[in-house]
Amino acid sequence: MPRLSAVQSTLQHVTAALSKIGRVPLALLLVWILTVWWGEQSTYEGHVQKCLWNNWETWKAGLKPHHVLLVADPQIVDPHTYPDRPWPLSSLTVLYTDLYLKRSYRTLLQQLQPDSTLFLGDLFDGGREWGTKKYSSPDKQYKRYGQDFWLREYDRFQNMFVKPWYDSGLPYMPGESGHRLITSLPGNHDLGFGGGINPHVKSRFDAHFGPLNRIDILGNHTFVSLDTVSLSAMDQVDLQTGAVGTGDGTAAAQSGKIWKPVESYLDDAKVLRERAIKREVTQLGARSPFPEMRKAASGSSHKFAHRVSALDADTQSGKEESTDPLSVHTSQFPTIILTHVPLYRDSEKDCGPQRERGHAIRIANGYQYQNVLTPLISKDIVDKLDASQIAMVYSGDDHDYCEIEHNEFTGRIKEITVKSMSWAMGVRRPGVQLVSLLNPIELSEAMISSGYSKPTPDKEEKVLNMPRGTVQNHLCLLPDQLGIFIRYGELLGLTLIALLARALFWKPSTSSFTSRQDLESDEPLLPTTKTYMNGNGSAKHAASPPLRAQSANNDSISSTLSTTQITSRRNGSLGGYGNLPSESRSRSTSPSKMKFIDDSDDWGNPTTAHDRTAYARVYHDPSQMSQTQWVAYHISTTWLFRSSRTKVEEFTKSMVYVSVPVLSFYFWLLYRDM
Q1: Region Disordered: what ranges (predicted)?
Q2: Which is more confidently placed, 134 or 10?
């Protein structure tokens, strides 16, 4: 019972507090709470729920596809993004862009639970400008940002994207086609572009994020990540000498150090790809329920060293030598190319209806950027990776969505340029790309091994075509942060107008901030007697009932007026408090005058007696007023004659009641997600 009493007491206090707020402020408070919750929490969940895999996948029931989340151009905001933006606007920009990325990414991981998450470059905005121990930016305004600053930005990226991924319960599984987080693909804001890349900056990124060129088997597809910002130095005007690379090794020597490792990787790509597929097929065979396939995968002639730490490094670099007789049909693992810079296309190539700005990617270049790869480099990539085995190309850099088919290459290769995930990159609706992979492998078809079945002339000559329809895509749009801020601004304007109107037009006696207990008190708010002079010169006292007995309607000033019976107008007596005697309404040159006595005046009139020929501003019985008197009295008691101090106090109290709970709730949401 004491516990119940405490609850009842709390409810009573809450009810009493709410009764003081009033309907308008309380309604605004509730609207603000719901709007803030929507803008800071539920809108993220609502947008991601529209992207749930089963909402758009069209695979047959019962199959388990491999789900991939592609993130492009987060470009975490730093001093390079808006160098001329003053404080505190610059700090607020960093705060709100980071919050947006954290909330979006966290919601994507929680609700979609992707098997693999891949980044398409431009992790930082000014990463190429932050110096190393042996290099400093050529731009004077960035020379003071060195290695320590870059390391802090690196930790910031890890806390924003890497740590939440590990906390999501999707552990990394090396050597398997399971869960992966790959952030090693560089962008031009991470390294620079082409000949403008500094080797020290490139080495730093490589050391912290992993191999810039790599091959991964995910969902029975071969993902080939290429450092195309470095490769572009092969066919680019040298920034220092003006020499033009032709792709045949005639580029400047300094640029050659940038692009040659990538070109060498491309030359070995088919071998590296086949080696990675062999390893995957071996693991699939080892997990097969069929003994003969396990034997083929683990027999003496098919042994693979299980070196988890060096596995990927050896595969990517091509150092591993193998005399393994196992052969595979690499076409059964379709190739998906990941590049930061999109492949070349015609400048009028339409990007489709889901693009926000314009209809095509503009063909242009400048300091440390180039919108698309050159035709030479694009052809070099496609030829060396075999156009017949390329299922998709995913790129970034442009910040907006673009979906095209390349008719320049065999097979009309499809490319999707993924939207930026950041709302600070020039798009109102940021987004990510969802990729669903389903490619069931028939090991008897994929493996050609003497350990499983003896090769025959027919089998050796058999060529399997790349399976089609193994990739499904979906653009997942994220909240419009600028639109959320605009919604807040609109609601703020509505709030100010509503509270200002309330303060101007509502009467103080009906103010919601007046305690209900005061209104229901046995003590009357007005004096119970009024002394006046009757026609005979003697004082009369008229009783006035308590306020709540006069009227049940607190919203009408006239209902609180005294109901004292007035003296008949015919005998010349005063017709009620403030009413003029009959003589005063005549044209007599000596009008009857009403004298107020100071000592017995309970209304706070001046201490000196004075005559009044017009009705005094006292409380009247409206039923005894003439129409002219009633209009004059009504005007005198409206908001036009109320004191400015009362209006300001009413408006201030209303703002406090609305703003304090809303701001407290808002800042708690910010603190929780920081």
Answers
A1: 292-327, 529-602
A2: 134
